[in-house]
Design brief:
Blueprint: H1 15-33, E1 46-54, E2 65-72, H2 79-96, H3 120-133, H4 148-155, H5 180-198
Helix pairs in contact: 1-2, 3-5
Length: about 200
């Protein structure tokens, strides 16, 4: 969001105020997104405003405001359609107020990692897990990203997120951890997967 720089005593909407307005409208969009049905046990699509910066000093009219958001896709959605929903909201604000301006930069277009449970490699991994651990592996869908999605997009290889961490309880946090026993168990599972793949 941009506006001209003035001393704070002058009137008019600052870039920060315009950004707050835009965020409010994007929250309205999000309230629609979260009502959409999803599949595979995933939560619905959603948009989260995650970071915001504006202003240089308390007595200076902020001329720019930057905010970052995260738009989570679910199977059946694509990046272009999701992006258009966002730009439609921002363009509507621009149409109402010609002093409203924005620049949108996409920092990630991570593809969905969507692998059928009956894929032969997934079944091989599940078999190997059961041979080592003595129980069936739990297969789930989760609403987070993975570099495996890029590898799958390029190679078409089925690369599941499969490891010792206990989902959201242990991954992607400041105190990220896994137990030593789980780590050692998964080394055995990975090795059994290699043995089964080569036999």
């Amino acid at each position: 969001m941009r506006a001209r720089t003035y001393r704070a005593a002058l009137k008019g909407k600052t870039a920060l105020q315009k950004a707050v307005t835009a965020i409010g409208e994007l929250e309205v969009l999000n309230s629609t997104l979260i009502t959409r049905p999803s599949s595979k046990g995933l939560p619905p699509p959603h948009l989260t405003i995650a970071v915001m910066n504006s202003g240089k000093a308390a007595n200076v009219y902020p001329s720019e405001a930057t905010f970052w958001f995260d738009r989570r896709l679910v199977p059946g959605e694509n990046h272009d359609e999701a992006l258009k929903e966002i730009t439609d909201v921002l363009d509507a604000l621009k149409k109402e107020d010609d002093s409203f301006d924005y620049q949108l930069t996409v920092t990630s277009r991570r593809p969905l990692l969507d692998i059928p449970k009956d894929d032969p490699f997934i079944q091989l991994v599940a078999k190997s897990y059961k041979e080592v651990m003595g129980k069936d592996v739990e297969m789930v869908a989760e609403p987070w990203g993975s570099d495996a999605a890029w590898i799958r997009k390029v190679t078409h290889m089925p690369i599941p997120n499969f490891g010792a961490a206990n989902g959201e309880n242990e991954m992607g946090k400041a105190n990220e951890k896994i137990s030593t026993q789980k780590y050692l168990d998964f080394i055995k599972v990975y090795m059994m997967t290699v043995v089964n793949a080569l036999s």
